[in-house]
Every structure is written in structure tokens, then in C-alpha cells.
Design a protein that fits this description.
- By secondary structure, this protein is of the alpha/beta class.
- Helices cover 34% and strands 27% of the residues.
- The protein has 3 helices and 4 strands.
- The chain has a 4-stranded mixed β-sheet with strand order 1-2-3-4, covered by helices on one side.
């Protein structure tokens, strides 16, 4: 199994909450749908302790699998593109 089929992920923590950064470039997005479900569940579990933000970048913004992943992540947290992250981080977390 190739590691390039999964996203690179980085957790950013602050006083007001947590932000998780996903880099989906070159990732097989369909394989990441179960991963998104796990992260959404985790966000639901910790959202009482602070806000949760998922930041993503992708070379396939209009990909149907990415839309599914963002829909899953968006159930329990806010999602935003990397290009908009600095403004959202300041306002949201």
C-alpha cells in the first residue's frame, strides 16, 4: 500500500480550539472517506472543549470524492481551504 494514497495531516492547537490541516495533493480521495469519518467523530467528541477547524488543500477542488470528504468533516467542524485559513483562524479559533 502506497503512503501517497493518504493525506499528509498536521494538528494545530490553540487556546480556543484545534485546527487539522490535510494535504490531499496526490492522494486517492476515495480511500480517505473512512479517514474523514474518523476525524469527524473525533471532532464531535472534543468540540465541547473548543472549536474544531479542518483546513485542506487539494489539486482537485471540484472532485466529487473531495466534496464527500468535506461534507463528512463539516458535520462536526468548520472546513476551509488553505488559501483562506489565516483569516478563518483569526476569526474562528
Amino acid at each position: 500500500m502506497s503512503t501517497s494514497s493518504y493525506p499528509k495531516a498536521t494538528l494545530i492547537q490553540s487556546k480556543g480550539g484545534n485546527a487539522k490541516y490535510f494535504s490531499f495533493n496526490s492522494a486517492n480521495l476515495r480511500k480517505n472517506i473512512p479517514v474523514a469519518r474518523q476525524w469527524s467523530f473525533a471532532a464531535e467528541e472534543v468540540k465541547e472543549n473548543g472549536k474544531v477547524l479542518f483546513i485542506y488543500d487539494s489539486d482537485t477542488y471540484e472532485n466529487n470524492d473531495l466534496k464527500i470528504i468535506l461534507s463528512i468533516l463539516g458535520k462536526n467542524a468548520r472546513t476551509t481551504r488553505l488559501s483562506e485559513a489565516s483569516e478563518v483562524l483569526q476569526a474562528y479559533i
